[in-house]
Amino acid sequence: MADQNQPNINGNANSTNRGNKNKMPRFNFTWVYVLIALALGYLFFAGGDMQQSGTASKKVTYTVFKQYVEQGYANKIIANKDEGSVRMYVKPEHIRDVFQQGVEQTGKQPFVQAEFPSADKLDEFVEAQQELGNFKGELSYKRSDDTFMQVFWNLFPLLFIIAVWIFIMRRMGSGGGVGGMGGIFNVGRSRAQLVEKGTENESKVTFKDVAGQASAKQEVQEIVEFLKNPNKFTDLGGKIPKGALLVGPPGTGKTLLAKAVAGEADVPFFSMSGSDFVEMFVGVGASRVRDLFRQAKEKAPCIIFIDEIDAVGRARSRNAMMGGNDERESTLNQLLTEMDGFGTNSGVIIMAATNRADILDKALLRAGRFDRQIHVDLPDLNERKAVFKVHLRPIKVDASLDIDLLARQTPGFSGADIANVCNEAALIAARHGKQAVTKEDFLAAVDRIVGGLEKKTKVMTEDEKRTIALHEAGHATISWNLQYANPLIKVTIVPRGRALGAAWYLPEERQITTREQMLDEMCATLGGRAAEELFTGHISSGAMNDLERVTKQAYGMIAYMGMSDALPNLCYYSNEEYSWQRPYSEATAELIDKEVKRMIAEQYDRAKRLLLEKREGHKALADLLVEREVIYAEDVENIFGKRPWVSRTEELLTSQPANDDGEDNL
Length: 666
Known about the structure:
By secondary structure, this protein is an alpha/beta fold. The chain has 26 helices and 14 strands. The strands form 3 sheets. A 6-stranded mixed beta sheet has the order 6-8-9-10-7-11. A 5-stranded mixed beta sheet has the order 1-4-3-2-5. It has a 3-stranded antiparallel beta sheet with strand order 13-12-14.
């Protein structure tokens, strides 16, 4: 048994030895350069004193130097005019008198060194001591030995050029894989990350991890199926699409969808950001585009994904500060050529993502390049429910948690927002030492993300607290009594983030919005300022956020949507990013300003009339806010009664607080 096992033992030992040899550090010329530099530095700083190694020396003043000479201690004196210093070598019999040590410790020729005022005075002093018999030697002068420095400065430039040349030649020889950084001569190499099944870069995201976005997922699934089974489409005469552009607001899952394509596809997947093409060197962006498509052709069929393509795909000749032949435009031109130029890219599909499709070049969006524009919009109610289910998988939630309720309370939330809500709820539950995440934790997470952190320690005077309560009660009163205003859910005067008070609403998820609906929302937004003026006699800075929203809404209604009687059915919207000229005259601009002022003034007067009609209810609501600091929809209902206009979304609500569609700047 031992004999049979012996060869295996030896073989393992040999392999281990080979492995250890392979793990030994490789020789690096950098250390040679470092050693040469250290040697030159040592020679520079210590070369002049090498001959004095092992010899004791002592620095003294010129007065002490003269005393030593007068006492007859000097054996010989050597002066250096360049340095202005003089050395006196001590006689052997007087070494102990000067250094308090024997010859064994100081050496045979120890010396003292001093700085002399001038050569003439030194000559006079030495001649006088020679006449007196105190010094029997001779005074000699020498200059600094700068031979080494002369040789060094003559050879250093040549040595430096040779070292740099060797370094560059070595870097030129070093390659680099996909996305490698093989030195300055490889700066034009593509930095795309290759994602391929069966490798360490394999994507772990699949279509199961992408909730909602059914239509977008269906289109990208079709691209994956085309690559897996092209005969299904080509038998009917169809051609593989060349490009797909994912368009949507931030956080809706465009990049996640691309990762799912990489995880589902059985073909190589090149991932790259649009900013990776941009470099300070001229021509680098175009070179990286060429290298990317060269690698893709070698691995075809494959998919190329360019995230945030607006970094290089911006419309040309729109930048007024630059010419038409800058680096970004050269990169875009090369990208257009590679996508649909004279050559062919059979089997290469380009996917890209952006949230600013309006600024992309038209040549990039034409048929034959990005054949499909896949819109990835904010999720609706059912899609938010599916997104919650995905992000709740790794979280320990309470069994009584109602996912439908969470989906209804987060209108307008993107997938990234919902992921943030789930994470924040888990952190809140852990902070309170809970074993599972409950509904209250999710509601607190929504409030935390939308309104900010509660600041219960902020000190307010009674007058400030009363003013804030009147302001928030004004919003609540008007929104409750207007048909198209967003349903109120919760009102608080507890400071959150930068706001001293906030009102939570649940807006309708409308596809279109009418003029009447917009005017009701504008009136409800102005209710806070109107309540301050009516019931305190003054106005404050707390309505700044309300006024900003109202002003933008009024300008949008009049200048863009044609909802003004003076300017009906006219739209002055321009998507020219660098346009310095307004698409209307000065007279029209004055008319727009007048219409905006008129519209806001009408809704402000309407808000004050409604508050005067509901004066008693508004006062009761403000008093309740001062007492409790937080009130809910059922409290408002107890004061004003049921709303005569109940939407379908409002019927689904429970008595718990929901999402904040807008907060005041109080």
